[in-house]
């Protein structure tokens, strides 16, 4: 019997298929195993990805030499727990000031930021419509420290008046330094040639005489300034009534009230800058409160829950920031201080309400068991809290504060109050 060519082809194909089918079935277990391994690897990857993101919170700060960057590093070192159910703090280098606040508001992935107290008010003033509800969208966790206003000038510059028409560096645009410097120089009516270099570039130009002065608003000691020496031909300019040639009676009718009512009195000291300030001397200036703020996520959202966990861990370990290994500015932190006009982040408010009795009991030890430095911190925090609660910022000059503190120490020792001289 003859088979046609077409039939032969069909028969050949059937024979080939009959041999192929057992082979295919024989390979199925291996293929299944590879598929299962790939699936497990994918699931393991996704689980690791989920765990990594579930424990992370971010804090945007300024440049690496800023005190806020060191604070964020300290927080990371104390709070970090990299276990699957732990907590990881990720500092993010930003610009600072108004830009940090905008990053908390608008930039994906940013949970918290270090900003100065007046930032929210200034942004709302610039664009009332865009920032109409900023006090509810961004809420403060705690005050961290005071940011001092540093004006470092060439030796031939002896006063703020000498800066008229001169080149002065205001730091980066929209940084906290630029914001505060703008307020101060406008109040003083000083028309300077403004530049916007970063700190390192500004220091280089100040040393060579290309600029007459540079400004930094940061917690002292500021890392970029500590290595400067008298040989660099620079010094700090003072900023208080006496330095400006003003007396208290003339202040209410002057344009300088925003400086001395909206900012805290402060001093730069020899301990902070031993190369630039003589021992036993200090430079009067002003300061702003640096705040740790958070975006107000919905309370049932995962990010809100992570921030609530961060607050519990951070506040619960606050004593670990005073062991001498951390930045000296941690002595200024005051978890309980209220900031007028701003909203406290609810997990922070809840923690304080739960632990207020415990916190108070820690401060009930005998005064004799405290060092003068401890008493000074407590005294300054009391004055600051009272000023914030009363809405008054500049109740006392630095000299009056020192005198009152001396009387306070005497009262603790003798129980007697010195009568004020008339």
Question: Can I get a quick summary?
Answer:
The protein has 422 residues and is of the alpha/beta class. 43% of the residues lie in helices and 16% in strands.
Question: Which terms summarize this structure?
Answer:
single chain, alpha/beta, D-Maltodextrin-Binding Protein, domain 2, ten-stranded mixed β-sheet, 12 helices
Shape: elongated
Number of strands: 10
Beta strand %: 15-25%
CATH fold-type name of the largest domain: D-Maltodextrin-Binding Protein, domain 2
Q: Which structural class is indicated by helix and strand composition? A: alpha/beta
Number of domains: 3
Task: Please compute the radius of gyration using only Cα atoms.
Answer: 31 Å
Give helix and strand order, one letter per element, not per position.
Answer: HEHEHEHHEEHEHEEHEEHHHH
> What do we call the CATH homologous superfamily of the largest domain?
Periplasmic binding protein-like II
Unreliable residue runs: 248-253, 358-369
The CATH class of the largest domain is: Alpha Beta
Please give the share of residues in helix: 40-55%
Total helical segments? 12
Average predicted confidence as pLDDT:
81
Characterize the biggest β-sheet: 10 strands, mixed
CATH architecture of the largest domain: 3-Layer(aba) Sandwich
